Automatic annotation (TrEMBL):
It comes from Rhodococcus artemisiae. This is EF hand domain-containing protein. InterPro entries: TSP_type-3_rpt (IPR028974). It comes from the Bacteria.
Amino acid sequence: MTSGSSTSGSDPVILDEYTLEDGTRVVDVDTDGDGEVDLSALDTDGDGTFETQVEDTDGDGRIDLIATDADGDGYIDSVAGDLDGDGRFDAAVFDVDGDGEVDAVVDLHSGAVDYDGDGVADDYIDVSGFDCSTQDDSSSADLV
């Protein structure tokens, strides 16, 4: 990854690096050469590794994907995504035990949880307090 501007559009370019008030280090990256932030990587615990990635995968200026390595082993433990581009997160996928296999898929609209991957709800959770919006109401160009 390089800093500055990219003319080819193929190499990721670091657009900004900063630290939030809580100590989280953020690196904003342009992945497609359009000069806009497409990915923000977050180091939430100050250990020098990025535990969370926030991405605008389709270039519409809204967050489409959030991926987190909660246990610091270098592998993604949870992902939430806007699958249909309507500006709301639709589903979250979890690898709870770190074995690389999906342990649960949660429908973030209905609260349906599929533990065994058969596409049928095995349980329901309350998602009423979960803000599924991918919209950022601030005027900032950063995703975070």
